Amino acid sequence: MSRTRHPNRLIVLAAVSGLFVLLFFGALFRSGVFVFRDAGHFYYPLFKLVADEWAAGRAPLWNPYENLGQPLAGNPTASVFYPGKLIFALPIGYAWAYKIYITGHVLLAAWGAYRFARHIKAGVAAAGICAISYAFSGNVLFQYCNVVFLVSAAWLPLAMLATDGMLVKKSLRWAVAFGAAMAMMVLGGDPQMAYNAGLLAILYALLLWFQKAPARSAGVRAATAEPTPPQNEEPPHAVRGLFARISTCCGLFIVAVVVALMLSAIQVLPSLELTRRSNRRAPALADRFFATLEPGAHSEHTYHFSVGPWRLAEYVWPNVSGRQFPVHHRWLGTVPAEGRVWTPSLYMGILPLLLAVSAMRWRRGEPRDRWLTWLVTLAVIAALGYYSLGWLMLEMRLETGLGGPFGGLYWLMTLLLPGYAAFRYPAKLLVVAALGLSALAGRGWDEAFDGSPARVRRLLLVFGGLSLIAAMAALGVRPFWDGWLAGVPPDMLFGPLDTAGAFRDLLFAFLQTAVLSGLFWWLLRQKQRASPAAWAPIAVLILVAVDLAVANRWMIACAPANQWEEPSKLAQAIKAHAVEETAALPPRVYRHSIWMPPAWEKRGSPGRLADAMRWDRDTLWPKYNLLGRISVIRVDGTMRLADYEEFLRTGSGGDALPPGVDALDAGRLAEWVIMPGNKSLPGGKRVETGDADASLWHNPDHLPRAWISRSSSPAESCSIVHFDPLRVEIEAELTAPGTVVLCEQYYPGWTLDVTTAGQTRRVPILPANSIMRGVPLPAGSHRLLFRYRPASFLWGAILSGLAWVALIVWGGVSWFARRRRAGGG
Q: Could you tell me what percent of the chain has a pLDDT over 70?
């Protein structure tokens, strides 16, 4: 490949860097912090809690601020042990560390995609197209809002690179690298993507094992060096050779899995312990088969964010569905079957998409090309999730008794793959599709610029023509547009649908694709001239970057960093009214489910995301409560212990209650209640906060934080004298044998040492009221010391520590051996 005809590495680097800066300008050069969805209210406070715990000299193992306490390290989204979290130990301020953590993984995704494309013999420019269209596609770029999924997307290209090396070169070194990449996904917070990477490796192995005569593309190096046997003639020892390949690949795959499990054991073991006791426990096989979706249960959440098939148009026309924020333009929400939106755009650039389509090979061609084609196909089908055979039957009003997901690929995966039912959100699989399409786009680039661009030019003419026709049709329906959408209900956050803005997005989507298709068609034509223009490939590369900057820049939403540093109004009011005996403890709050100021539904605003951040912070929407160390007794949307969820749903009679309490329900757990301004707490005392849309109530019937069960003697006492996430101390005075109850979550790993009359002994903790910690004690003065020392963490730390040391030593020895051989040669 001549550098006079193709962009070199510096031009590719400039295109990637320029696009990166354009997209993240507000975060990099202003005081902006990512504000939309989980980036603002979930990961920013959660990661700060983890960083603060390390800074306090404690391992971040337990979170006492949610659901009466629950494991922190065992929750994968906290990614407590991910090596990339070392950025938070640097003296650069938390907000900057958070931004670097996120944007750094976008760059890692681009670099990994570039290396993957180069590994499969793509040219420099083709690898640049792969990097740009993957890292800055809607499916990957928008994961800045779902940080752990961005981390796994960043490591996925390197995992696929290692997969190819492991299976094609039969290399132990690549098997270890594949295992390390999967371990980084698990440690980074997304074990599902590691699982998916293993499935993709199995798919590739199957294609390699059973290939007989793969087609050889001109000018492209063959994926394997095996000779092609004559037609209808089996080579000698074919069966023996097949079994040899199978055994070799199976052995390497097992090595990779073992390496991944060992390196990430410090995360895997606590997570398995939590999952077995959580609301994500695998449902019964019959429920999975018949797709029984109980509202609010994990079985229903499994299929949230399924991708409606009509949304695939977003691959061709950027923002054709209307921009979701900050002003409500998303007219596609009027489709009755439309579900929740995982990423508001699927766009990856029109030229990379058509290059990928031109390079797809389902039956013939290189095994790599067929692998990439099939992984794209299967990932897109699986991402449909709920929209499957069962959904079609429901839409046709067929009384079959089968649920919506029945018959879909994702449904089949949750049914047959061990443990897959514990995951959720089919739309996440579009990250896999994005990588496959981007890699195929690189293959298509080389075919177009080193071979004939005729196929791509035909596709550009077709889609450019369709886009022009669609633009004219849109102009034709403009007089009716506002009337058609007049009855669309407003969004509770972004307000009424801006029909004029929605139409502009629709029209601009068609025009952008039409204009770009024409430009790309003309630039590819330069290649067919007798003297090809040396600047044409450079112009194409830059134009692809500009296309994605124009299409996807709006999705990067920021708010001033000082908004996260300001204290919550309601948290200040709670702490100001705290009584002396509970002032040293985290205030315990029940926060009403999602609601917004009613005025927001009536009027949209360009600053609505910053307004929403302040609202959520002030009213302690989880996880903003973590910033003020406020305990919220009901936090949805993440893993929660199954016994506690059952308690919240049904309550419990209780077997170890304080005096005067005959029954126990969730309403007694919180001392403070936050509700909409028009609601009141029966028997509660309202605290004025000056906010008409939110009310704060003190609950006089709340339970104490620790008590002696059924005690009525004034001579008895029980009080918490020390509280931190890993250590709770209680002083108790009993005049008769009784049970001391700590109103914190009962969970394995908590130990108790009781000191009585100078003697300390280890005492077992028993479940009290099904969810709390109870300790039967004799009469006397006792000091109780609860400490969280989970065996799952200790064993995981030992296994992972040994594995990482072994990996570093093995890697160093291998590197020196290669250097010695290279020097000797």
A: 91
